[in-house]
Design a protein that fits this description.
The structure is a single chain. Helix content is 28%, strand content 27%. It is built from three helices and four strands. It is globular, with a radius of gyration of 15 Å.
């Protein structure tokens, strides 16, 4: 059984996408959330609303939420990922400049 998600939303700026990831073995939602959480990734757990472009506009880094196990594939899961493309590009430019200095 294939898995498919289709989403189209008009936005001014920002990236948002649903990513399907196949793992060697499924570790569970909590392990995925704790493994992703870092300085640049804001993980929104099940108790929080998944990120969206409007709420993430002007925010640094990447927001991940809506993590769910795939119903058709036991070792796969879905991630909802959002980032402000203008802020993300500026942060990357500053990081490169700092690395060169």
């Amino acid at each position: 059984m294939p898995s498919l998600r289709l989403i189209q939303a008009p936005v001014f700026h920002g990236y948002s996408f649903s990513a399907w990831v196949e793992l060697e073995s499924y570790p569970g939602i909590e392990a995925l959330e704790s493994g992703l959480a870092c300085q640049w990734i804001d993980v929104r757990g099940a108790e929080a609303e998944p990120p969206n472009n409007v709420g993430n506009a002007g925010q640094p880094g990447i927001a991940v939420g809506g993590i769910a196990q795939d119903a058709a594939h036991a070792d796969a899961c879905w991630f909802w990922v959002v980032a402000d493309n203008l802020k993300l590009a500026a942060e990357n430019a500053v990081a490169v400049a700092r690395g060169l200095v």
